[in-house]
Amino acid sequence: MSRHYLITGGAGFIGSNYAARLLARGQRVTVYDNFARRGAEVNVRWLEEQAPRGALRVVRGDVRDAALLTALTREADVVVHLAAQVAVTTSVRDPRLDFEVNALGTFNVLEAARLAPQPPIVLYASTNKVYGGMEEVPVVEEATRYRYASLPYGVPETQPLDFHSPYGCSKGAGDQYVRDYARIYGLRTVVFRQSCIYGPRQWGIEDQGWVAWFVIAALTGHPITIYGDGKQVRDVLYIDDLLDVYDAAIERIDTAAGQVYNIGGGPDRAIAIWAEFGPLLEELLGRSIPVQYGPWRPGDQRVYISDIRKAHRELGWQPRIGIREGVARLVEWVQAALQREANYGFE
Fold it and tell me: I need a labelling partner for 298 at 20 to 30 A (CA). Which of 51, 56, 142, 164 fits?
């Protein structure tokens, strides 16, 4: 089925990968991005090189521009809302910017969809940070990791919300607006509370995209700081698996509309951020990687693992790419990027 997709933040890591997948299928894609993130220009050039004539439109714009968003949304069958301020540290330093981009920007997307003659499907990339620090959930310390004492499948969608940090508040506000616009206005919206997504075209930085950041830093000689003891556990999900669940939600929109899904690697793809990930990366690179340790960051969860059973049950989705295979693919991409251009977006 031919559709027109509008991807906010479409020049970013997730957006450019999804745009490439859609273009390969013969879909029409509008990439909407303010090009503030490192790597955005490179990602768009990559898309333009492979896009069939007339299939790709690139619009330089900001989600705070309600009028431009409204005009573009009138032409869309699906809006994939990925544009965001993504770093907790930035949100603490500049909470107004964080609010305007994440909360107001998401509101603008929803209003644009509501006002469209034929309202599009809206997918929203939320975050596991809406659950806060989860201090009340018992955690057990083991040799190389922490684990939940009584959540064998991970955190379900019924976990109480607890917005922590301006970032958590702004993304959480968007999360709840997206959900409620399905209830109040009948929009076909879907919320994905995403865990650690990683893969090619991710220009990771210390504050966001830790898997890619560790790979990039190790290959470019940048110092790596581990905040805490490195035994914090996260479930990681390779980009192709994330895009599969986007596709599944669109194809099963009658089921998915108005729903919230926790999306990550689940218990089978959970790893301690350095006590276990470090040895894996050293094995893939064939050498040791020096690191230094810093104090715990406020609100840093000892464990976060997504319970992904609802997405499997309702959408028929489950991850396919294992951690070792996914990280090896990312290492290969970063190495190739560095060979093409010495500083290929990596500072």
Answer: 142
